[in-house]
Amino acid sequence: MGALAEELVTRLKAKTAKVGIVGLGYVGLPLANVLHHNGLTVYGFDIDQRKVDALLDGKSYIGHIADERVQELIADGRFI
Q1: Rounded CA gap, 1 and 35, in Å?
Q2: pTM for this one?
Q3: What is the chain's mean pLDDT, rounded?
Q4: What count of other Cβ atoms lies within 10 Å of the Cβ of residue 79?
C-alpha cells in the first residue's frame, strides 16, 4: 500500500478524516449518516437548494432517515 493510502487508513481509524459527499439524495444522505455515525466529519454538497435548506432546518426528505437524526447530524458540527 502506498504512503497516501496508509495515511488515509490511519486517519479513518483515528476518526480524523474528513469526507466530502457530492449529492445528498437517496445514496448521499444515507452515506453521510453512516459515516457520521461512525465518527467522521462529513461535508455534504448538493445543487438542490431545497435539500440544503431542509437539512439546515433539521428536516429529512428521505423516509427512512428521521427528522430527529438530521437534527443530530447538524447539532454536533460534524455534518456540514
Answers
A1: 23
A2: 0.89
A3: 96
A4: 21
Q: What count of residues does the chain have?
A: 80
3-class SS letters over 1-59: CCHHHHHHHHHHHHCCCEEEEECCCCCHHHHHHHHHHCCCEEEEECCCHHHHHHHHCCC
Distance of alpha carbon 45 from alpha carbon 20, whole angstroms: 7
Give the three-state DSSP class for 79. strand
Express each pLDDT in 36-60 by its tens digit. Answer: 999 999 999 999 999 999 999 999 9
Backbone angles phi, psi at 7, to 5 degrees: -65, -40
Residue 69 to residue 4: CA distance in whole angstroms: 33
